[in-house]
Amino acid sequence: MQEYKVFQISKDEIVPLAERMKKNGVFLVMVHGFIDKEGRMDISYDYAVNPVIESYHVVGEMKVPSIGSIYATAAEWPERELNELYNVEFEGLDVSKRLFLPEDMLETQGKGQIMVTPLSELVEKNVK
């Protein structure tokens, strides 16, 4: 069974941690995000520190630095997904195009509304 360790960090520790992990040859497994029981955003950075998965959580932040310049696509895709679905802003991340959602989807009040608004209300109706 894979051992799993959880740590809480601040948003200021995200980049130095990623740089240290990359320098040591540690793989980024995934960047996850969810809303916790208190309604706060919880962003986790999971690293394969053999034989352990170390999960570093940043809680309550909606604006954090991107680690895409350190881990390339392994970080960029999950960061873009969290931006699109939860409106988490990753500083330095290119979000000029949508990752999953259709380009004709209405811009709602803010971003990240896909998680709380039915799709039928988000798609523009082209009436001629």
Protein topology:
Layout: E1 3-8, H1 14-23, E2 27-35, E3 41-49, E4 52-59, E5 63-65, H2 68-71, H3 73-86, E6 89-91, H4 119-122
Parallel strand pairs: 1-4, 5-6
Antiparallel strand pairs: 2-3, 3-4
In the CATH hierarchy, the architecture is: 2-Layer Sandwich
Q: Distance between termini?
A: 59 Å
* Biggest beta sheet attributes: 4 strands, mixed
Which strand-content bin applies to the residues?
Answer: 25-35%
CATH superfamily placement: NADH:ubiquinone oxidoreductase Nqo5 subunit
Residue-averaged pLDDT, rounded?
85
Percentage of residues assigned to helices: 25-40%
**CATH domain fold name:** Beta Polymerase, domain 2
Low-confidence stretches: none
Number of helices: 4
Order of helices and strands: EHEEEEHHEH
- The gross shape turns out to be globular
What is the total domain count?
Answer: 1
Integer-rounded radius of gyration = 16 Å
Sheet with most strands: strand arrangement: 1-4-3-2
What is the structural class? alpha/beta
Q: Could you tell me the number of beta strands?
A: 6
The CATH class designation is: Alpha Beta
Protein model, in words:
- By secondary structure, the chain is an alpha/beta fold.
- The protein has four helices and six strands, in the order βαββββααβα.
- The strands form two sheets. It has a four-stranded mixed beta sheet with strand order 1-4-3-2.
